[in-house]
Amino acid sequence: MDKNQILDYLKTSDEAKLAQLWEKADRLRKQYVGDGVHLRGLIEISNYCCRSCHYCGLRREHEDIQRYRMPDDEIIECAQMAAEYGYGTVVIQAGEDFGITAARIAKIVETIKTQTPLAVTLSLGERGDDELKLWRGSGADRYLLRFETSDPDLYKKIHPQRAQTISDRIAIIRKLQELGYEAGSGVMIGIPGQTYETLANDLLLFKELDLDMVGVGPYIAHPDTPLGQMPLPDSPQQPRPTELMTYKMIALIRILCPEANIPSTTALATINKATGREFGLQRGANVVMPNMTPRKYRALYEIYPSKACIDETAQQCRHCLRGRIESIGRHIAAGPGSRTRRSKLNPSNANTNPIPLF
Description:
The chain is of the alpha/beta class. The protein has one domain: TIM Barrel. Helix content is 41%, strand content 12%. It has helices at residues 3-11, 15-33, 72-84, 102-115, 129-137, 152-158, 169-179, 196-209, 243-256, 266-271, 276-282, 295-298, 314-327, 339-345, and strands at 36-46, 89-94, 119-123, 142-144, 182-189, 213-218, 287-288, 331-332. Strands 1, 2, 3, 4, 5, 6, 7 and 8 form an 8-stranded parallel sheet that branches. Strand 5, helix 8 (196-209) and strand 6 form a beta-alpha-beta unit. Helix 1 packs across helix 8 (196-209) and helix 3 (72-84) runs parallel beside helix 4 (102-115). The relative contact order is 0.18. [4Fe-4S] cluster binds at residues 49, 53, 56. Residues 333-358 are annotated as: Disordered. It comes from Limihaloglobus sulfuriphilus. Keywords: 4Fe-4S, Iron, Iron-sulfur, Metal-binding, S-adenosyl-L-methionine, Transferase.
């Protein structure tokens, strides 16, 4: 698929053409990753952040927020619960919080790997090579770092640099791959100043980086941020942060990166609480991330308001997701869902007799 074809799908509202897109993405999803849906238990361990991103409720300047850091024993307890529920992976996520030391994260990872069969994914922002190397050596399997947009000028406009640092998330992603992590990334859809061409470039960069995981979601600004009260530009080239645009991106990612793990995200479930996750799974996604964070912390991890599942317990979330997944004829997959392990364990999913893309 070339850039012009990508742009055509991003811009179209033709229902017949979109139906073709959904069907192709779902067929490729079934061929390359099967009908199983992998569950990644999410633990939001801290809402401290040293960054000043212009849309995020965790930004350091946001004073109307109660900050927290989960103690180690609670984090380990959440991971053990995820293992008991049969999840294959736990995702340890936080703002860019240097108050949680690299050594502490290493100890948490080592404990989880010793006490459970889980794969461990870290999502802790831009970190130094030494920290990333330490955590990989401690047993971390994956790292998620969304580059948010492939347009460097747009990135700088909404992501101010930390003092005396220069952000280069693409370089960090390549370093993660060099260190042996399964690397994941993603973008926001509908950022003010974004264009359809920007989104097309994002998709092509996903393919170029050969990512193991790719997650996308609609741009949702927190109201207590610089961008929270600003309307989107009134331009025909400005993508809207809609449910439909999110499905288009998920489907196009599956076509361009057929072996990748692709989540049907919380942000998608937030803008369509009734069926958002299900539609995402039917249009290319194969991962869902149930929240394991204790309820007393969930509402405090407010990147944007009205997040889905804020009031659910981990057990309620587990049962709800199982029902949603089975309602569309899919099943919960076993194991960590590594792209490498999947191809080794399931030769039938290998790239034999591939479906023509276009």
